[in-house]
């Protein structure tokens, strides 16, 4: 496939100032008339041909300034339209295309989801609607007329503000006209037509503008849209407070659809969502679902400035909008919830998804330099590591200078298609600092290693810390290291170091040493507090040091990190003798004194690193069965050692009868701790645990409690498990989003029978290969949550996923390619399993007629 390279970027030879679309919706034959006001781009090549992008569309009619073109002047195919000698002055093209939304299983361009017409244009879906300069640096003002059958699509939504609506005389059809005054790239275009219910509320911006905010869902589901509406209003108010960003249209619409390739899409004024990230009720959604809804609603809304008002020059700059917007949504969630708990959640995601990606064959810089298929670059690296870079920038500059830089970035780039350089220039100007070194974070793949050695000098009462960084192929990076010293009573506040400002030392060289004065006794260094940089930290901290940090570090992140480090050392056999018992005693002390004060944090302290975390820690020759056994052993031990306390906590945290449901963070934290306790208790005593879990499934008044109990029971083979699974499946037979949880739970059972279970569930009436949520739930979750069965020594787990990739590819290549990325860590496996994984990848590669999406991932995975 053709490779696109950053260094080959050239401005477009033509610009499109205005677009007038007339879309006549029809389930089999939708007609689109596009009137494009074009002109040569002074920054482009004079006299160049006009090459419009197209993808699987039929040209019906074409006129230039009202005249039909001679056949020799044009070359048209479903994948493009070329005007060989376009005018060298402004001109108007009218293009009529024809497309079939019902046949569109790729879910890119215009398609139907559950009877609703909707669009997905990022990254390059607009070319599936009409021929266009489908690139993010061509910004146009759009007016869209949408016409549809009145019964089939009573609601018609577009970008911008509503202008006009009415019947089409003499027909059962009607129309609506929408105008978006803000110039935008085609990837932000959207329309929706369908039968939809809505909830809405007014919002008054800080500029005094009244905005009608509405969330549209399948009729009958309106009661489940209230939380998403509330989250939207909170996000709008927060962006004004935290970033000074106000909304800029009269309406803001959110629409939930059930077939969607990703989480949601930030189309201007018309955000389209996967319904999983809109619909919620106590009966159907877990606390994690509520938190995700809040975060994703906010994320898409925040794009209105970071992505829409300031967009990207080209797709290599994707992190410019995605990394920044993830940072913004993380800050929002931290303000809405507990900052410390949220930071831990962010780092868990980063380590579970981004670190392995960066350590494997799909590793790439946050700003990639080349791609064969851009849809394969919506990655954890671009999103999560991209957000970490913005976070480091704030740490380096301080909150006030960072805010000044953000204001400058928005002011100077409003209405423009910007680059990472534009972003950094705003901060360099606001701070007066040279950020050229910092820019290297965008350029180099891989996770830097940061090793730290401490030396105490009792006579001088000094403590020296030597830092060494390494990332093959990269120069020394600017690494902000938040740190402090800890002793047996807590922080050693008397110790000082002139190279540490506001608790931060910035490492700029390959190695450096700093010295603390006034250190009365050998301290324990607390390094990388709050995970101040996305690096792998290597220290010589012993188990006793880690126990000190767990007990006394004022930084909650590093307390949690200490517990994780101890658990990892225990599971990998690196721990010192006696640590298991000491770890159990430390957790017991923690539970006695702190658990009820902050249950959400306590639940995180109790949660063992996942099997994937252990595999990443081991780094080579991984045998998933051994990891699983080691983790189970530690779960059992903790369950037994803490059993009395865990039972007491469960009782103390029990919901009072008749208590109403609240999705707030404090209530969710209590549920999390109650269920973490059940998990450990059941590990130590499966019989009692199974009974308790079964009772909780019956009595639960929230999906969080019901699902957590079912998850515990799902790990205990026997009739009770099968009955509970059957009952759950029957109870929620008409709730696809709940069945997704049920599919995923069964796919995660670490037993040989799971492959047969998955095969059987693929024939379940609710399962469908055309719905991405179903595929992700039953098949996509399997390699991620079930390492022993995915990497079975007979290769059957790899074969299951490879077969699913091949079956899915002709239906939805984006989802197929995403599924294939689950092979990303195959090189960590021991040789036997590694060979089988490679064979599965080679089998895919050798398959003719692969999509570009799957061919690209398969090729890079084995390279
Ligand atoms: N900016 C959006 C990305 C997205 C997307 C990309 C490719 C194919 C389908 C897609 N749906 C949404 C979502 C976001 O990150 O905000
Ligand atoms: Zn985004």
UniProtKB/TrEMBL annotation:
Q: Which GO terms describe its molecular function?
A: aminopeptidase activity
The answer to whether UniProt assigns keyword Zinc to this entry is yes
InterPro entries linked to this entry = Aminopeptidase_N-like_N, Aminopeptidase_N-like_N_sf, PepN_Ig-like_sf, Peptidase_M1, Peptidase_M1_dom, Peptidase_M1_pepN, Peptidase_M1_pepN_C, Peptidase_M1_pepN_C_sf
Q: Give me the reactions it catalyses.
A: Release of an N-terminal amino acid, Xaa-|-Yaa- from a peptide, amide or arylamide. Xaa is preferably Ala, but may be most amino acids including Pro (slow action). When a terminal hydrophobic residue is followed by a prolyl residue, the two may be released as an intact Xaa-Pro dipeptide
Q: Where is the Peptidase M1 membrane alanine aminopeptidase domain?
A: 227-440
- Catalytic EC class: hydrolase
Q: Which family does it belong to?
A: Belongs to the peptidase M1 family.
Name of the protein this chain belongs to: Aminopeptidase N
Name the source organism: Methylobacterium jeotgali
